[in-house]
C-alpha cells in the first residue's frame, strides 16, 4: 500500500521520478549520480545529498556541496570574546551560539589567499542583518569593505552575503552589534564543478589490460598513486599527425570558476606535469584564462583564477619535450574546479533559471534574489520601483528621451512612448524636422520659421546674429506652442506682442519712406525673414541623446582581472606570464 502511494506520488511529481530512477552507488547522488555525498562520519546521503546528521567538516550548503573556507587547512578563527573557543561557530549546529554578550568581532585568517565570493551567517536574531560589517584584507595587503554588498535571507536563521572583492583575500573581520546572536559562520570556497563531467584525452594509456581513461581525473578520488587506478594517463604510443597531447573537460552547463586544484601523480614521474598549458575556454571556445605550468613540477597545483566569466571547457596541454622521441604525457590524479553556476542559473545542476525579479543573478542554492530587478527592497523584492526609476534595486533613472521620463521597471525601455524621438520603445531616432513631442506625433507650429521647432518642447527655434563679430545666440520664439505653463505663456505673449509692435513700427517707417508694397501676405514672417539674416535650420541637441544603463553588472569582461591573477601569490608555481601569451579573443 505504502509502495503504491509512493509510486503514484513519484509518478505525478516528475522530478521525484527522475531522482528515484537513479540508483546511485553508495556515496553518490543526483540524477546522473554526479554529486558526491559529504556526510559526517561517511554516512550515506539521500537522493538530494542530505545527510542523516550533518555535513562532513569542511562542507556545507545544499547537498553539502560547498567547501567551507572557515575550516579549511590553514584557516584560523579568533574572536573578541573572553573565551578563546570558537567551536560553536564552526560546528554546523545552529543551537550552539555565542554566549558572550560583549562579542563585537570575529576574525578569520588564512595562511594563503582565497578568492572570496559569499558567506553565510546563521543567527538567533535576523532582525538586524543589515548591521554586520565585513572588512577584508587582500593578498596585496589592501583593506576592502564589502564592495557592492548583497544579501539574501534564506530562512528564519540564515542569511547569505555577497561581496564583490575582485581579489584574493587573506583575512576577514566581521563586526557589528548583531554579532551577539551569531551561531554559525560559513565562507564559501565554491563547489567542485568538475566532478563526473565529460573528460577526453588524446589517446588512453593501457597496461596489463587496465586502461587509464580521462574520466579518472574527475572521479572524485585524488589518490596520487598511479597504480591505485585513480589517475588518467595519455597513451605512450607515438601517434602521427595528432593534435598536441591534451586532456579536455567539457562542463554540461557553463560555470563560473574561481579556483583550480590539480593533483599530480606522486609515485613517480611527477616531473611530466611541468611546462603544461592550462586553458579555460568559454562557450565560444575563446580562452578566458590561461596558465603555464612551471619548469619544475609540483605535486599539487593550487591556482586562483578569479574568473567570473562562464566557462565551458578546461584543457591541459602537454608541451614538455620527452627524451627518446617519446610522446609527451599527461597524467592527472584529480582536477578540482571550484566554482558555481553562471549568473542567471541556480540549483545543484545549475539548470533552474533565476526568477524574473532578479533574472540575471540569484542565490545559487535557493534561487532567491540577492538584489531586485524592478524592486527597491532587497532581499525581499516586494516594493516596486518608484516612477521614473528602474533596474537593480531601482538604482537607475529612466531616460529623459522617454515620454514623461517613464520606463519599464525591469528593462528600462520607454513604456509610454518617446519624447522628442520617433521610435518607441527604443527612442533613439530624433524627430524629423517639423515634428516634435510624444513619439514626434505633433507638427511644429506653422508660425515657426520654416515650421521647425525644438523636438521636445515644440518651441520655435532660430538663431539671431546680432552683429557680425559676436557669437550667435539661440532664441526661443513662442509661436502659439501648446503645453506651456501660464507664467511662460504670459512671458511669451508679451514677447510676441512686443515683436509684433516693433515689426509694425518698422513697417510703418518703411511705408513712410517708400511707396507701400503691393501686397504683404504674412508681415510677421516676412519681417522675421529680413530682420534675422541667419537661421540655423536645426540645432544639434545633445541633451536628448538616449541613455541606457546596462542591466547586468556581473557578466562583464574580466580580462584585466585575468591578467592580474597570473601574478598570484603562488610565486614558486607561476612561471613568468610573458612566456606564454594568452589568447584573449573577444
Ligand atoms: C532582535 O534584535 C532586535 C534589534 O537588534 C531587538 O530589538 C530584538 O529584541 C531582538 N530579539 C531577540 C529575540 O533577541
Ligand atoms: C600590511 O599592512 C599593515 C598596515 O596597513 C602593516 O602593519 C602590515 O605589516 C602589512 N603586512 C604585510 C605582510 O605587509
Ligand atoms: C588481456 O585480455 C585478453 C583478453 O581478455 C587476454 O587474452 C590476455 O591474456 C590479457 N592479458 C593480460 C596481461 O592480462
Ligand atoms: C594506494 O597505493 C598506495 C601505495 O601503493 C597504498 O599504500 C595504498 O593502500 C593504496 N590506496 C588505495 C586506496 O588503494
Ligand atoms: C569548440 O571546440 C570543439 C572542439 O575543439 C568543437 O567541437 C566545438 O564545436 C567548438 N565550439 C564552438 C562554439 O566553436
Ligand atoms: C628546478 O630544479 C632544479 C633541480 O632541483 C634547480 O636546479 C632549478 O633551479 C629549479 N628551477 C626552478 C625554476 O625552480
Ligand atoms: C537620478 O535622479 C536623481 C534626481 O532626479 C539624482 O539625484 C540621481 O543622482 C540620479 N541617479 C542616477 C544614477 O543618475
Ligand atoms: C507622469 O508621471 C507622473 C509620475 O512621475 C505621473 O504622476 C503622471 O500621471 C504622469 N503623467 C502622464 C501624463 O502620464
Ligand atoms: C507613443 O508610443 C507608445 C508606444 O508605442 C504608445 O503606447 C503611445 O500611445 C504613443 N503615443 C502617441 C501620442 O502616439
Ligand atoms: C569587479 O569586477 C567586475 C567585472 O570586472 C566589475 O564590474 C566590478 O566593478 C568590479 N568591482 C570592483 C569593486 O572592483
TrEMBL record:
Which top-rank group of organisms is this from? Eukaryota
GO MF terms held by the record: metal ion binding
Which keywords does the record carry? Calcium, Disulfide bond, Membrane, Metal-binding, Signal, Transmembrane, Transmembrane helix
**Segments for region (Disordered):** 549-586
Give start and end of each Fucolectin tachylectin-4 pentraxin-1 domain: 190-346
Biased composition (Polar residues) is annotated at 559-570
Under the heading Pfam families, the entry gives: F5_F8_type_C_2
- Biased composition (Basic and acidic residues) is annotated at 549-558
**Full protein name:** Uncharacterized protein LOC106051604 isoform X1
Q: Which organism is it from?
A: Biomphalaria glabrata (Bloodfluke planorb)
Classification from the root reads:
Eukaryota, Metazoa, Spiralia, Lophotrochozoa, Mollusca
Amino acid at each position: 500500500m505504502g509502495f503504491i502511494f509512493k509510486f503514484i506520488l513519484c509518478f505525478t511529481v516528475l522530478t521525484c521520478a527522475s531522482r528515484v530512477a537513479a540508483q546511485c552507488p553508495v556515496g553518490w547522488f543526483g540524477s546522473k549520480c554526479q554529486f558526491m555525498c559529504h556526510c559526517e562520519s561517511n554516512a550515506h546521503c539521500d537522493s538530494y545529498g542530505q545527510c542523516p546528521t550533518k555535513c562532513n567538516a569542511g562542507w556545507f550548503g545544499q547537498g553539502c556541496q560547498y567547501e567551507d573556507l572557515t575550516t579549511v587547512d590553514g584557516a584560523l578563527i579568533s574572536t573578541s570574546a573572553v573565551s578563546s573557543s570558537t567551536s560553536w561557530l564552526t560546528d554546523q549546529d545552529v543551537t550552539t551560539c555565542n554566549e558572550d554578550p560583549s562579542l563585537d568581532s570575529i576574525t578569520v585568517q588564512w595562511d594563503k589567499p582565497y578568492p572570496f565570493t559569499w558567506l553565510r551567517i546563521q543567527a538567533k536574531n535576523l532582525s538586524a542583518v543589515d548591521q554586520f560589517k565585513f572588512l577584508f584584507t587582500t593578498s596585496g595587503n589592501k583593506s576592502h569593505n564589502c564592495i557592492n554588498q548583497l544579501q539574501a535571507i534564506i530562512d528564519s536563521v540564515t542569511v547569505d552575503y555577497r561581496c564583490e572583492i575582485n581579489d584574493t583575500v587573506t583575512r576577514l573581520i566581521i563586526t557589528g552589534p548583531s554579532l551577539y546572536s551569531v551561531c554559525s559562520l560559513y565562507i564559501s570556497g565554491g563547489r567542485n564543478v568538475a566532478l563526473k563531467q565529460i573528460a577526453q584525452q588524446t589517446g588512453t594509456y593501457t597496461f596489463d589490460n587496465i586502461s587509464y581513461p580521462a574520466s579518472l581525473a574527475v572521479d572524485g578520488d585524488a589518490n596520487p598513486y598511479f597504480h591505485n587506478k585513480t589517475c588518467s594517463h595519455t597513451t605512450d604510443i607515438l601517434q602521427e599527425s595528432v593534435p598536441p597531447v591534451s586532456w579536455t573537460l567539457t562542463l554540461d552547463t557553463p560555470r563560473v570558476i574561481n579556483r583550480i586544484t590539480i593533483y599530480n601523480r606522486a609515485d613517480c614521474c611527477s616531473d611530466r606535469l611541468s611546462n603544461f598549458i592550462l586553458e579555460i575556454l568559454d562557450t565560444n571556445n575563446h580562452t578566458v584564462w590561461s596558465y603555464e605550468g612551471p619548469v619544475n613540477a609540483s605535486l599539487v597545483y593550487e591556482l586562483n583564477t578569479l574568473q567570473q566569466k562562464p566557462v565551458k571547457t578546461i584543457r591541459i596541454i602537454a608541451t614538455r619535450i620527452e627524451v627518446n622521441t617519446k610522446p609527451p604525457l599527461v597524467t592527472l590524479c584529480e582536477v578540482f574546479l571550484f566554482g558555481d553556476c553562471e549568473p542567471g542559473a541556480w540549483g545543484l545542476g545549475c539548470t533552474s533559471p533565476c526568477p524574473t525579479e532578479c533574472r540575471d543573478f540569484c542565490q545559487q542554492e535557493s534561487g532567491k534574489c540577492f538584489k531586485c530587478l524592478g524592486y527597491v527592497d532587497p532581499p525581499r523584492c516586494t516594493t516596486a520601483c518608484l516612477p521614473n526609476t528602474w533596474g537593480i534595486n531601482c538604482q537607475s533613472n529612466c531616460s529623459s528621451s522617454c515620454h514623461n521620463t517613464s520606463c519599464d521597471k525591469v528593462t528600462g525601455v520607454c513604456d509610454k512612448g518617446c519624447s522628442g524621438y520617433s521610435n518607441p520603445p527604443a527612442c533613439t531616432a530624433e524627430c524629423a524636422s517639423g515634428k516634435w513631442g510624444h513619439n514626434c506625433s505633433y507638427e511644429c507650429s506653422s508660425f515657426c520659421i520654416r515650421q521647425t521647432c525644438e523636438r521636445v518642447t515644440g518651441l520655435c527655434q532660430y538663431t539671431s546674429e546680432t552683429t557680425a563679430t559676436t557669437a550667435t545666440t539661440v532664441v526661443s520664439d513662442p509661436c502659439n506652442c501648446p503645453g506651456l505653463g501660464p507664467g511662460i505663456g504670459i512671458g511669451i505673449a508679451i514677447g510676441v506682442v512686443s515683436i509684433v509692435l516693433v515689426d509694425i513700427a518698422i513697417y510703418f517707417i518703411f511705408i513712410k519712406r517708400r511707396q507701400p508694397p503691393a501686397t504683404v501676405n504674412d508681415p510677421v514672417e516676412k519681417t522675421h525673414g529680413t530682420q534675422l539674416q541667419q537661421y540655423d535650420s536645426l540645432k544639434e541637441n545633445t541633451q536628448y541623446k538616449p541613455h541606457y544603463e546596462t542591466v547586468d553588472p556581473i557578466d562583464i569582461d574580466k580580462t584585466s582581472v585575468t591578467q592580474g591573477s597570473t601574478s598570484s601569490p603562488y610565486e614558486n608555481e607561476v612561471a613568468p606570464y610573458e612566456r606564454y601569451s594568452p589568447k584573449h579573443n573577444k
